[in-house]
Design goal:
The structure is a homodimer of 227-residue chains. Chain A has helices at 15-28, 40-47, 51-64, 82-106, 109-128, 131-149, 152-164, 166-174, 179-194, 198-225; strands at residues 37-38, 67-70, 74-77. The first copy, chain A, is globular. In chain A, a hairpin with a 3-residue loop joins strand 2 (67-70) and strand 3. By secondary structure, chain A is mainly alpha-helical. Chain A starts with 14 loop residues before the first helix and ends with a helix. Chain A has 2 domains: 2-77, Arc Repressor Mutant, subunit A; 82-225, GntR ligand-binding domain-like (Four Helix Bundle (Hemerythrin (Met), subunit A), Up-down Bundle). In chain A, helix 5 (109-128) packs antiparallel against helix 6 (131-149). Helices cover 73% and strands 4% of the residues of chain A. Chain A binds a DNA duplex (30 and 30 nucleotides) through helix 2 and helix 3.
DNA sequence: GAAGTGTTTTTTGTATACACGATATATATA
DNA sequence: TATATATATCGTGTATACAAAAAACACTTC
């Protein structure tokens, strides 16, 4: 851990949730590196709380698969391997396809309007070449589709899986050569949903993730070599 | 809570995991009923442990969605609604389809042999009309397919989703009119995997869950009326 | 009798204490 | 020097203590 791991106070959330979010974010952004041990007293001191909320946060991270427990040795940040990321992406591919299929059936006129705006918004964001803006526009677009599925379980699962690739997604979006393709992919997904063409939508979503899969796996291999 | 909620000691697992499994089982089997509050001291006394392991177990149940937290009021068993079960089943449908597709690509000769045996085993179990045996044979069969996907994340997600329907699955299997259909569905899935026909396998798996969906939703509506 | 208010009880949220296992360190012995 | 053994240290696992919020209750007042 390089750093300052600052706790962001929120008077209404219990400490355990604040700690959970803090640690989660630190792991996903790479602030806490794979293999790094999470020592309770150390974290407690750093975050200015007692061990209790730290431990409860770790239990949740454990179930999410972000840390692994070694008996009588405590938690450490889970390793990200090519295999594990591929596993996640395979599942995401399937679930994202389901998302757009359900969206075809259930999206409202209003949501469709929003989706259109989000597509345009993404295109504009791409033109600015501002990575952060692009990422935001991308999330906004995907959130509209997710919401349109009306399936809460699906929403939380997809969000969770998406977060697992947080680190790599950013690298992916930074790569400007992909931008036009992304715009096109989004357009195809949008068009299919407008036409309520489940098959086309499903295929488009699948391809969309397939390309991310390739890029991310590529990135992981690079990381592996530079180690 | 009707009952005796006995803790099953396992000297090697930390208490929090034993408690987690105990509570989880109690919720899934309906021993702890939806809406019921999980009070820490009460559970601690009942299970003969302190509040600490109870709380840590609850944190995991919370993330799994089996309990919901009300701030400063603690945890209660999550309600099972028709909507929530439908959400789960929609996702499962998609993931089960993915499972058989991946199995088509990756299953080994040996696993294929086991799958064949499991199919026959299921058919035999059906003939005995022993619900417990049928359920076991069913799980065994599905486990082989799951394993054959080689995707650990997928395996844990599907297992988790499957457990959410534990209560209803049993009712479903008890219904003898479904038995022949189940055998036939399994046969179709098996045949498709043998032929490495991803499309057919995917469709068969989809139908398999679709039928369960109908049965379970039907059951939930019955439960609703009798309340 | 209803509404509001103060008090008690219950239960969570958080901190801390203690026990024990695991690891590392030092010392002794061959 | 290498190995074995004793000992100290560190960190988790579990229990308990204390504070504060919420709920329940009783009491007063209108």
């Amino acid at each position: 851990m390089t750093d300052n791991l600052q706790i962001k106070m929120d008077d209404f959330l219990p400490l355990r949730d604040v700690v959970f979010n803090t640690l989660r974010q630190a792991i996903l952004t790479g602030d806490l590196k794979p293999g790094e041990r999470l020592m309770e007293i150390h974290l407690a001191d750093k975050l200015g709380v007692s061990r209790t909320p730290i431990r409860e946060a770790i239990r949740k991270l454990e179930l999410e698969g972000l840390v692994i427990m070694i008996p009588r040795r405590g938690a450490e940040v889970a390793q990200i391997t090519e295999k594990s990321m591929n596993d996640v992406l395979e599942v995401r591919q399937s679930l994202d396809a389901l998302c757009v299929e359900l969206a075809c059936d259930r999206i409202t006129e209003e949501e469709l309007e929003n989706l259109k705006r989000a597509c345009v918004g993404f295109e504009l964001a791409v033109k600015t070449k501002d990575t952060k803006k692009i990422a935001q526009a991308d999330v906004a677009l995907h959130d509209i589709i997710l919401k349109a599925t009306g399936n809460d379980r699906l929403i939380s699962l997809v969000n969770n899986l998406a977060e697992q690739m947080y680190r790599y997604r950013f690298e992916y979006i930074k790569d400007a050569t992909q931008h036009d393709m992304l715009v096109e992919e989004h357009r195809q997904i949008y068009e299919s949903i407008v036409k309520k063409d489940r098959d086309a939508a499903s295929k488009a979503a699948w391809t969309h993730i397939e390309n991310q899969k390739k890029a991310i796996i590529h990135q992981i291999r690079l990381d592996q070599e530079n180690k």
